[in-house]
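S.,

As promised, the flavin-adenine dinucleotide run. Input:
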Amino acid sequence: MRFIVLIKQVPDTAEVNVDPATGHLVREGVSSILNPEDRHALEAALQCAGQGDQVVAMTMGPTQAVDVLSEALGMGAHRGVLLSDRFFAGADTWATSYTLGKAIEHLGPFDLVLCGRQAIDGDTAQIGPQVAEHLGIPQVTYVTALRIEDGRVRATRDLGGTLEEVEAPLPALVTVLASCNRPRYPELRKLLAACEARAPIQLLDAADIGVMADHSGLRGSYTRVVKTFAPKVGRETTVIEGSATEMAGRLVAALREKNVL
Ligand SMILES: Cc1cc2nc3c(=O)[nH]c(=O)nc-3n(C[C@H](O)[C@H](O)[C@H](O)COP(=O)(O)OP(=O)(O)OC[C@H]3O[C@@H](n4cnc5c(N)ncnc54)[C@H](O)[C@@H]3O)c2cc1C
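Predicted complex:
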């Protein structure tokens, strides 16, 4: 079986802020990490894979995104694929998922595509479902447990308080939640091997995967981010004075006035 895991390099959002003057993300000095849920997607693939199966980690991004592929190889992926081309720059989710879908088709037959539910920078949770649409395969989202049985993926979906058992024929795509598993740490030996020039990481550009320039990147995007800004959070503080009974009475009156009570 062949598992393809889509992984994304994202800024460590714990360190990212929005510049209030320009509305742009301040990325200077911010480190990049493997999107947290993608680590769980990779762990799920590694747990499902048996002897002779292949786990391929794929990312689309600038050349430095190779770092997340090295990390994936360190965790146990058999090979990595980096999709990088100036034509891919500025892609919205449609152009991103189209490009990922074309690259998956380019690699040949596959059984299961795994993604994180969402990336912590874009936060749309659209890529997984859109890639499945581009490939014309079933999709199972919000997966918290999965196994492969009799040529089918059997998965438990967590719908926030309700669990749903779903099965789909292969090939299929699943997006996983962090509750799915506990990812293993990369092994030092594998990490060092992944950073060598002969590491099994393939670089593909738009021509390699047959992506037309006007279908990818900014030109292939139907949507534009018009503005990014941090909402102003205003707070009004009122100090209530008096005896305990008076303060309680004034508090109740103030809450009634605001229709809270
Ligand atoms: C309207 C709009 C305009 C945008 N314009 C730009 C722009 O000009 N420049 C720019 O840099 N970005 C832009 N983006 C962001 C970019 O489109 C998204 O980061 C990208 O499409 C992935 O979407 P997401 O981060 O919401 O991923 P999600 O859908 O939240 O990710 C779900 C999962 O999909 C997989 N995945 C997501 N992205 C990748 C990837 N690149 N490679 C491999 N797997 C992946 C991962 O498994 C991930 O966990 C734009 C986004 C929108 C909505």
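Residues 6-8, 35, 37-38, 41, 59-61, 90-93, 96, 100, 115-116, 118-119, 121-128, 223-225 surround flavin-adenine dinucleotide (CB under 6 Å). The chain has one domain: 2-215.

- D.
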